[in-house]
Amino acid sequence: MNSFRKLVSTKVSTNVDAAENDVESGIERLLKQLQQVNSQMQAWVTSGGSEMVSHTLTRHQEILQDLTQEFYRLRSSLRAKQEHASLLDDFREFDRSRLELEDSPGSSEQALLKEHLSVSRSTGQMDNVISQAQATLGALVFQRSTFSGINSKLSNVSSRLPSVNHILGAIKRKKSMDTIILSLVASVCTFLIFIYWLTNTLIPCRVGVAWSVCNINNVYASLGN
């Protein structure tokens, strides 16, 4: 992309050389390969890939969108420069022809000159329309890639929602089970504490009552004697 950017910034002639075609076709081929890699990663993530791969896929899609937009912008700029240089060449040629025709008078030559001027203007207008159409095409392609990235993100989220719901349900069930177990343990501990309290309270009372009964019997026995 850097080589193509430098080529666009320094391109001033209308001639299209082999190096320019090689760079442009090479970038298009690499963008298609990157698109294929993203499609394969999207299929793998949809089938249950890891979260890390999902983040990597999102980042690669953003990079592809940026590169695609930059490529179409540079190519449109290159086409506009070539068309501008071609128009300048046409006007220079027209000026030379006009000067030659002015030096050699004749009505037929003047008519040809006007016809050539009209054709040149029509060609310039057609070139402007073509450049606008190319710019519009680049914008549409970028929007398509953007919507494709949004659809892939939505598909990823929808594919992961069942697993997320399953995990949340498992967490809720575990919390309910922990609450039940904690309640049972607290009940058992309370019951054991109550039994211990009853044991420590009733046994001394029974011992005290028995001792008092023995003393009363001893008193009655002494009185009888």
TrEMBL record:
GO terms for biological process: endoplasmic reticulum to Golgi vesicle-mediated transport; inter-Golgi cisterna vesicle-mediated transport; protein transport; vesicle fusion. Belongs to the GOSR1 family. This is Golgi SNAP receptor complex member 1. PANTHER family: GOLGI SNAP RECEPTOR COMPLEX MEMBER 1-1 (PTHR21094:SF0), GOS-28 SNARE- RELATED (PTHR21094). GO terms for molecular function: SNAP receptor activity. GO terms for cellular component: cis-Golgi network; Golgi medial cisterna; Golgi membrane; SNARE complex. It holds the Pfam family V-SNARE_C. InterPro entries: Golgi_SNAP_su1 (IPR023601). Component of several multiprotein Golgi SNARE complexes. Its main location: Golgi. Involved in transport from the ER to the Golgi apparatus as well as in intra-Golgi transport. It belongs to a super-family of proteins called t-SNAREs or soluble NSF (N-ethylmaleimide-sensitive factor) attachment protein receptor. The chain crosses the membrane at residues 180-198. Keywords: ER-Golgi transport, Golgi apparatus, Membrane, Protein transport, Transmembrane, Transmembrane helix, Transport. The lineage of its organism: Eukaryota, Viridiplantae, Streptophyta, Embryophyta, Tracheophyta. It comes from the Eukaryota. Coiled coil: none annotated. It is found in: Golgi apparatus membrane. It is a single-pass type IV membrane protein.
